[in-house]
Amino acid sequence: MAENRAFKAYVSDGIESLKLVARLSWQRNLTAWFYVPIGIIIILLACFGVNSLIGLSSVSFPASVACLIVLFFGLMICDMIIGDRKTRALVNIIDIPAGWALRYINIFFTPSFVLLPLSPSISGVEVGKIIAVFLIGFFVVVAITAWLVRVLQLITGSSKRAMTERAEEMGREDDAIPLSQVSSSRQDFQVTLPSGMTTPSLTSGTSTPGIREDIANDLIAPRRTQDPSRIRGTGGPPETDFSVQDSRPPSPPQQTPLPLTRPQRWAAFINRNFDRLTYLILFLFVGLPIYYATGYAMPAQLTFNVLAYFTALALPPKWRQFLHPVLVSSAITVLGIWILSLMRGESLDQVLGSYKTGTDYLDLWHGRKNLSIPGAGDVFGSVLDASIVALALPMFSYRQELRRHFFAIVIPNVAISIGSLFGYPVLCYAIGISSTRSLAFAGRSLTLALATPATKNLGGDVNTNAALAIMSGIMGVLVGQRILEWLRIPEGQSDNLAFQIGRIVK
């Protein structure tokens, strides 16, 4: 009887916690699991339309980058015509899917590393040469770019004053936002305690996007009561200065709120890990049954890849400085899907072949025949186009900096791109790197969206090029600021210079 009562109590508390989560976080989950997918589809439809228009000409250009340019200048025109306030309201709407796509852009890069085992065999000596060229070239390019930008700064007169003006503009923009707009954009997940007090939630921004939205995603236990000796009027030391008398009545002593109940604790855990639990359920009860029953691996591989990325994000911040989530999640994904494939008697090459079959949304919507079923890598690659389009929002946000430092950004950008195109392949081939991998270095200074088609047109190795482009971004985050310090860039100019170099060297 006691066991039955305990079991019923656990079931009752579980149902109560689920009701609590559903009642207090339904808006967040509705946005994350309904509005965001619809917005992503709309962005991809726009890319599909632009791709169809580009296909009418003989020019090869990524539709996602074209949409990025169109969206950026479209927002600029809207800002001039309808004003800043209405434009920011439009940006907040676009940011629902775009903010999500930018927040998770790292996971869409993982297929490039997951597929590295499919690259042609390479000797250890050649790997060492590639790493050496990459590292030396990275530091040389950053140094050249830093000093070139610095010289152009001095010539054009752009300096720390530009960043100060930007800070003042940001402050004016924040002051212009009505208080009701800010408060209405927050969806706080709170639990009313028996004592009538509420527990404020922590914000993580892992599900619902928004430039000015911070979505509460956690329940926290109440803070401990204050030390009575530090509370005036409740037994603390008497006041010794009577020159200023406080007419306000003494505040009542603070009381320790009652602890969270078991359903409230469970609701806090579920809400804090809602995305992880959702993908875990999909992996165990949807992906694996489909994979082992039909052989279609996409649901299992995609959900496992997402879980691997969440695992990589759970590493301590100090570790993530060196163990980048893209690299860690890619390694976990390769190992995991290989183990899953061994249970079906498949080799690593076979399972990676099903991970990315080369069929993206453009192929499907164009109605091309004899297509393979898309894999997890194809899904990530498709959504990556939405992330590239979404880059128009931070560009619009920093439009004043782009205008002020136009020459300091464009001139080094063009110079480094031309140097990479004609310098890297010759140098790599001369020291014994294969021709296809040497040509992959030609797009070293391009963003991945442009580097991929450029490398294909040159006949280079796309996987090598993708790894180089992504590793460049990772290196910039890890050591970019330190390189500026080693170059003895003036401290007042380092942040301003890093802003510009970040748009030149990925």
Automatic annotation (TrEMBL):
InterPro entries in UniProt: CidB/LrgB
Record region (Disordered): 165-185, 191-210, 217-260
Keyword Secreted: no
Chain intervals with Basic and acidic residues compositional bias: 165-175
Bilayer topology annotation: Multi-pass membrane protein
Transmembrane segments: 32-54, 60-82, 89-110, 130-152, 274-292, 322-343, 406-432
Biased composition (Low complexity): 192-210
Entry's localization field: Membrane
Source superkingdom: Eukaryota
A cellular component annotation (GO) from this entry: membrane
The entry's keywords: Membrane, Transmembrane, Transmembrane helix
Record PANTHER family: PLASTIDAL GLYCOLATE_GLYCERATE TRANSLOCATOR 1, CHLOROPLASTIC, PUTATIVE SEROTONIN TRANSPORTER
Name of this chain's protein: Uncharacterized protein
